[in-house]
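1st attempt posting a full record on here, be nice pls
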Amino acid sequence: MSSSFERHQKRRLISSYFSVVLSIALVLFLLGLLGMLILNAKKVSDHFKEQVVVTIYLKDSAKEVETEQLKKSLAMADYVKSTEYVSKEQAAEFMNSENGEDFMDFVGYNPLQNSIDVHLKADYVTSEHLDKISEEALNKDFVEEVTYDNDLVNLMNNNVKKISFWILIISSIFTLIAVLLINSSIRLAVYSKRFTIKTMQMVGATKQFIRRPFIWKSVRLGIVGAVLALIGMGIVLYYLNKTFIELNLLSNPVLITFLFIIIFALGIVITWISTHFATQRFLNLKTDDLYY
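the predicted structure (as tokens):
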């Protein structure tokens, strides 16, 4: 009978430990994903900003030497990421492939213009910089027109600011929820040992002596949960990096390592603090209160 009871208690204890580890792993995993989102938010926004194209249309009278000088000056500019010269013939071929028919059969000539497509660095994709760049290009006699989607740029910059703000708010809320969930799991695990705690206290054990094994046990569970969370984060990061190659998510290993260290440390610190206060609560309870 006693052996059966001990096996039952052991199963309950293992189940309690498993639930604590699982809770810690899941919470830290989600917290880690949020951390990866924060670290890569600027990179993602920069990627989309750099897809904005500034098109400089050249007059038919533009000389080849003038065009080459403009291309070289743009390539050397601090604000330019890349440039591409598109001849009127290339533009016509693109339109024909898009429409499925040769529009020059109707008009009898090629009305398109030679142009240079300019992709700017993300920090310069603002209305102010674009207006300045456009004005500089238009000052050249052989430039006919400069076009870009100003409404898209404004919308993108406004959305980036809003998203950054809400990511900060959500991160704070989620961190608080993570602490509360892990704390709740630890308290339930300690609750199952409340009578053991009180018995040790009644035979003269100090509070520090009683707390020590509980804290070390919880810290070990926290380490296991953190390792599981880091494995999950690594798998997700590897998959995302292979799926979205252009974002180059692994380009900054120092920041990624720092994030992993923070998640691992959180698994230890949160479990240590939660166990300390949970055991302290039961140490301060009267014996009669242990039944409620």
